[in-house]
Amino acid sequence: MMAPTILNNRYQVIRVLGAGGFGETFLAEDTQMPSGRRCVIKQLKPVADNPQIYQLVQERFQREAAILEELGDSSNQIPRLYAYFRDNTEFYLVQEYIEGQTLTQKLEQQGRLSESSVKEILIDILPVLDYVHSKRIVHRDIKPDNIIIRNSDGKPILIDFGAVKETMGTVMTASGNSSNSIVIGTPGFMPSEQNAGRPMFASDLYSLGLTAIYLLTGKIPQELATDFATGEILWRQFALNVTPSFAAVLDKAIQSHARDRFLNAREMLQALQTGATPVTPTAPQSNPTVVSAPPSGGYVQPPTVVSAPPAGVQYQQPGYYQQPLPAPSKGMSDWQKAVIMGGVIGACVVGGLWLTRGQQSPQPEAKPTPTVVEQNISPTPATSSLGTSNTGISAQAQPSSNPTPATSSLETSNTGISAQAQPSSNPTPPPSSSETYNQSQFLPTSSSITRNAAVSVINQWLQAKRVMFAPPYNPQPAAELTTGEQYEKTAGVNGSINSLKQDGHYYKYGVQTIDSVDDFSVNSNQAVIQVKVTEERKLLDSNGNILPKESDFKTRTVRYNLQFLDERWKIASSEIISN
Fold first, then answer.
1. Which residues participate in catalysis according to the annotation?
2. Which of 269, 399, 555, 560 could be cross-linked to 126 through a Cys-Cys bond (beta carbons 3.0 to 4.6 Å apart)?
3. Helix axes 496-503, 484-491, angle to 10 degrees
């Protein structure tokens, strides 16, 4: 069946965006607007061919359209409703066209997302969900396909509310009353109470939690095993770098019983922002009994389901409106009380120790004998947040090709460098910026360097990139950490710092970890260390827009040549061995 060329004598259809059980979705151009703006048109068709039902559907459709209009006008992270109309037996919604990528497309393009990226998406989308819930609305179809990352500002946009589809599923029961004949949601991302026809606010949090897990692991819920004893979804083994506090937030959001999840979106947002570890009723099992194993091979994300509710279940109507939003709790939360109580107890203990010590004669302090221990290095995260252009992206990520940025030679400071640096005097560093960099105290100052100490130097370099390659473009770390060729490519006249500053571009870093040390050797005042480094970086322009071709998330093998100069070890050159 060919798509119509024009709808409502106004909207010129450009192409079909998708099709489902209720009709099709088109990208169209508004011929009656001077700008010829593009819009999305959803064609919806009732499932019941019944004049009485048709009249009822029309009334509900108008009501749901009014709700969508209010939501879109009040939040810039929900598409605006431009118009709605009907033609013969079909209904149409005309909505704002969001230019961007769905989360599914984003993951397919660049691979699994880092914890910081996923957390940023959640923190940006939870206030929108809180607003939706405050209007007594349950979205009911949150999944990676229904969240778009907008190109213009990188914000997540919530699309495709389920109640309009549910309205199209209205039928007549045997007793002559109207009823919703379908359950809206996506298998795997839909909790049990929603599958039973009783969606609630916590149902959306469940779906959002599994969406976040999909971004971290690259696996849809059906590919994750379940603990038979507890019902716990076992996902952490596919995202080993996720911090325990963030994993606990997601575990609480995806609890099988709604009462065990967060009370509302505000509570989940607070847990993410404070970093507090929420308590979940089900503790992780050391030896879980698996009842469903991840299937092998590829996968296709399932579409929104159109199914009948379980037998005997009276489906709630009109579907959008559910439980009241819980009122904000008054007084202190349990963790605040615990902190205060802990402070009181701690003060008492310290006071008692002070009194006891006051009664004893002072003893001379023994000076420990310094011991140098060289040991193997396990994956080591950068201890502060400062960055690296010569490191890159998770091994699982499959990014698009990333040519060397023309506007920033950030990683020219880490590429194309000779394997053996020649000693040279360090140039006088430019005046330091207003932001203070005070990491030199952690740098090794002995003329003999261990592998651990060399790793410390590289970690400091990773950390320093966050202040060198972003406003205020502080060059001081380059003077402390680099020399010779590396210094020139970083803070020289034609170096990365000046190049970025002139273009008004800057880097924003996420994950930065040293995964392994592949090689290490020392020869007099020079050393070589080769490491695998995982790094997430985004290049932004002066307006804060991400430049995708110059942003990536990769794991790279990098060889650093170190030199002992001015009583400390510095990076003389570096070379990317493999991307």
1. 141
2. 269
3. 0
